[in-house]
Structures are given as structure tokens and as C-alpha cells.
Amino acid sequence: MRFILSAIPWLSLGLLLLLGGCASYSNSFTPIALEIAQQNPAGALKLLDKEKTPERNRLLLLMNRGLLLRMQGRFVASNQVFSAAKQLAEKLDALSLREQTAALAINDAMRSYAGTPYERVMLNLYSALNYLDLGQLDDARVEALQIDLLLAQLGDDEVGPLFDNDPLARYLAGLIYESTGEISDAMISYRRAYQAYLEHQNRYALAVPRQLQRDLLRVSDAVGLTEENQQYRADFALDHWQSAARKKEQGELIFIFNNGLAPIKVEQSLTVPVPPRGQLVRVALPAYVKRPGGFSAARLEIADQVFETEIFENIEDLAIAELERNQPAMLARAIARNILKYRVTKEAGKKDDFAGFLVNLTGIFTERADTRSWMSLPANIQLARVTLPPGTYDLKVDLLDTSGQPVKTLDYPKVLLTAGHKTYLSCTEVAPDSLQRKN
Amino acid sequence: MKMKRSWIMLVVLATTLLVGCGTQVKRIEPDDVRDLSGAWNDTDSRLVSEEMIADMLERPWVSDFMVDYGKRPAVIVGTLRNLSHEHININTFVNDIERAMINSGRVDFVASAIEREEIRGERKDQDLNAREDTRKAMGQERGADFMLKGQINTIIDQSGKKQVRYYQVDLTLISLADNRKVWLGQKKIKKFVKRSKLRY
Q1: Chain B CA closest to residue A97
Q2: What is the average per-residue pLDDT within A402-421?
Q3: For domain B37-194, is the CATH number 3.40.1440?
Q4: Into how many domains does chain A fold?
């Protein structure tokens, strides 16, 4: 035992040299975010692949890769990566005692990143969108079923619900079922989406999208749920909707606007000397920082008509709520870790003051917050559905700033809409001012 | 004594850290049953196709057709829809079905729409380039008498790390002449999957 004790100062020195130069994970993402903002996902992917990723961050690498491939329109490759990510996330669900020990001895970032519940849902959601872009409806349907399964699993964990509900995932499932002609399944999914929006309305101030209200009216009417339909009419103060039969003869454009970038985690730390010997104790915890500014919505101009996107998913708020939920456990681990580090320092200091100082320094330096998260996700996802007679249209999209003024215009020439089909278009746009960090 | 114990601890620690290094490959027979994740795998695809086609060929529609027309029925595979929770490779399943049917020798099998395009292209090419006595004429294709359609469905029940996966494969054989359904086949597979709570 004495042998091990005497080795601790030297081990500490080694660890200090190894970890001393590590920047936090979220800092290393800045150049990649810049490439995304400049509409260069291929460049971002190159930067991402150049970085050396430790095995414990493999899931993050896959999630970012998948999304960057999707931004380039490489949907098949993107889905291969997402599929690997899903398998890995499932594997990482199991607890690793080795990593837990490392988390207690060094810091939380020593654990494999297993993804937060909302990130796991996003994996399925973007896979589904990839399949819809590829026109593989049955495969998109598989994702819809998996979303259902995953949300059931997250809502019924042994330690209690990990995640309440994901409105957009439910809505997308409804959209997919409607496309495959399974109208009663679509009704159930839209209804669940409505429930989720109502829950989120109170917690995150996310309104029930007007589009969902129209969808609920149309589908409840088509299924023949007269009473429910009347209830919706009263609740939404809406009296007109396009009938499902009429809609079938029309083409439909579904425009998805990935707005901005998800918030980043930064480290907040506190270092205090503890009497009597002045040993330093440090607690470092992650905190989210929102990216300021950004676009408020996208305005679509097509066939002399104007439509505006609505927020369907607010990832920013989901991320912050997720961190708040984990705060007590993270704090508990930090305290346990500090007690352990305090004891080891005290033991080392008994023999030799310098050794004690070295061990203390290592303890301080290695106490880092876990700032990992899926940072290529947008801050929010917006959506607009446009029904028009079949034909080819030129689409103009104005991105609006917070005061409603257009600041950027995107052109989509010759968008083909066919009867009874849905055409998907999506874009990722990051407002230049949202890249600056503001605390 | 104390010294010795710390050495043992170090050795144990080092071994645990080193275990799991290096790739291991072991060859196994294609019909070996290895269930890893509980998902639909090669064994399911093979067993289901073999059993269902065996059942299909035993039924009276084959002999009825032989009596009526004096030839073996020609079958084509239509769409097989995956309505399950997993991305199942439908192609290997279709290939397994085709193999089981052709090898039975009781039915003729017609190339699928995609394959036909390629063969027609070759025939067109022969028309220009092949010798007269080896040239194959156009418009001599054997039309299918029946189309096989089907779907794979799943029901999943789960609680915590436990899961019951229930697969149901339905195949339908439809007469192309009059839309009659001449055979309905069904095969069910049920699996209980328990995921580990611990990992290395």
C-alpha cells in the first residue's frame, strides 16, 4: 500500500502533463460552427474528421458527422452514420463501472458520452427526414415506429421518466403515417404531438403550431371523430380546413428550417482554499449559454402566396431543461470527487509538503466540467406546409430577423409538386450575429 | 506482506485494462444460429422463407393449376413491405424466397421488373450483334401467372431493459388473371431480449 501511496505524486505529475493542455470540448467546436454558418458543411466535416476523437466521444463524432452529411444532401451516408450512432447509444445505455470510477477520480468528461434523451430522439428524427428526402416512405415509417418505442422507453425508465415528450418527433410520425395512408395512426400521432405541445407550452413557452391545429381538424374529420373535431374547432377558433379528399388531389411542399445552432456548454468553476492547511478545493460544473440574435422565422413566397414557418421544436430550451435535471447528480459527483481528492492530497502531504502540493494541483487541474453536447444541432426547428395544385413552382425564402425584416434570401427554382405527394425541402441557416458568445 | 498485496493489485489492474485488445475473427457456418442484438437477422430470413415456401408448395393451388393448364405455374415476387420497427434488408429475404421456390422445381419463376429491363437490353443487343442461330427473339417472354406479395410486421412490448419482440410475416399469392388469392401464409417469431445493465 505504501508503494502505491508513494507513487501518487509522480502519477499526478504525469496526469497533469497529459491533461494540462486540454481545452474544453465546446471550445474545440468553434471553427466547425463557423464553417456551418458559412454554408460549408463539407469543410466542417473535414475539420471534424481531422480532429482526434477519443473513444469516449465517439457518439458525438457520429452525431455531428451524420448531421453534416445531411446538410450536404448525402442522405444515404448520413443514415449509415446515424444508424451506427443509434446502435452505439443503445450499447452505452449500460453502466460502466470502470468509467464511473474514472468520473469519480478525475472528472465527468472521462465517461463515454451516451447522449441525452433529446439527442437520442433527434437521431431518429433526422434519420426519418433523410428517408423522406430519399423518398423511402417505408423506411421513414420504421423511424416513426422507433421514435414511438424510444419515447416509451425514456418515459418509463427504472429511475423515473427521463424525458417528457418530443412534440416534433410525434408530429413527424403523424406526417409519415399520413403519407403512407394510415390515417388512424396519423390521428394518434397528431394527438400525441398536440399533448406534447400543451405540456411544452407551460414549461417552455412553445405555442401549439397553427399548422398542427389545421392538421388535427383535417384528420379528425377524415377519421370521423365528429365530437373531437368540434372540440378542436372551438379550442382553436378555426372553422375552415382543407378536407383530406381535396388535399389528395393537390401537391404539398414541406419546408424545414433548421434555425441557428444549439446552445453550448461552458465551464463555471469555483476554487476555494480549505483551512487549516490551505488545500485548494475546486468545483467545476457545465452551464448552457444561448447564442444570441439569429433569425426569427422564414417567409416562403410561392405562387403569389406567402407562408411563414412556425417553431415546431425548441432544442435550446430542451437542452437547458435537460442540464437542469442533471444538475443535482452532477453536483453530488463533484462533492464526492472533491472529498476523495482532498483525502489523497492530505495523505500525500503528510509525507512531503511538495508532494502534497503537486497532488493538490493535479486535483484542481483535472476538475473540469463536462461540456460535451451535440453542437451541430440547430437552436430550433421550424416548419411550414404548403398545399398547391400540382406543378412546378419557383420558391423564394426570406429569412427574417427578430424585428421581422428580411436579412437573407434563398432561391429554390423549379420545385416540383405532384398530386398526392409531399415534397421535402430543408435548409440550415446560422445568422452571423448568433456565433458570438454572450453570457 | 503489504508489498506483495499491492503488486497483486497492480497486476490485476493491468490485466483488466489490457483485456479486450486486438481483433478476433472466427469463421462460422452460414447456418449457425447466432443471436446478438435480438434484431431480425440472417437466421430469421432463412428460416421464415424456407418454412413459408415449403408450406406454399404443399397447398392445392399448384396441382390445380397443373390440371387446368398442363404446365407449372409461373410466379413473380411483387412488393414485400417492411412495416416493422427495424430496417430489415428486404432484398436478402426476397432472394431467400426465390431460391426456395426455384429449387423446389414445382414452380417456374419469372425475373422481376428490374431484372427484366436488363435482359431486354441484352436481347436488343443480340438483335444487332449476335449470330442468327443464337439470337433470342423479342416478345417471347413467359408471363407470370401469380404474384407473391407480403409484409413484415412487428409488435414490441418493453419494460426497462427487457423486451419481447414479435415478428409476423404475411405472404399472399394472388392470381394475375383474376385477382384470386390462392394462398395465404403466415409465420411468427417471438424473441425475448434482455439488455445488459453493465458494460466494460
Answers
A1: B200
A2: 92
A3: no
A4: 1
